[in-house]
Amino acid sequence: FYVGSTRAEDVDRRLSEHQQGLHDGYTAARLPVSLVWSGEFDPITEAIAFERKLKGWSRAKKEAVIAGDWHKLPELASRPRTRH
């Protein structure tokens, strides 16, 4: 999943730019793209902090956010236990 941020009024424009391949990188090589989740944050620093967190999360955690399964995040964050 691609994770990015933009100003609220720019979401449609930004998605269109990605669809057109105007931004080199991850999305340009994976067209077409679709928006599967968005959130609003105020102030912008909260959006930037959440974006950084998401970028480091596993695919399973990102899928939980997309599905709105926020309660699954603690379980998905725990590491599997190993036997000694």
Descriptive account of the structure:
The protein has 84 residues and is an all-alpha fold. 43% of the residues lie in helices and 0% in strands. The longest helix has 13 residues, at 44-56. The termini are far apart. The model has no long low-confidence stretch (mean pLDDT 87).
What's the main sheet like? none
Task: Give the terminus-to-terminus CA distance.
Answer: 35 Å
Count every beta strand, where a strand is a DSSP E run of 2 or more residues: 0
What's the shape? Answer: globular
Topology as a string of helices (H) and strands (E): HHHH
Question: What is the alpha-carbon Rg in Å?
Answer: 15 Å
Portion in helices:
40-55%
Note the beta-strand portion: under 5%
Q: Give the class from helix and strand content and strand pairing.
A: mainly alpha
Q: How many helix segments?
A: 4
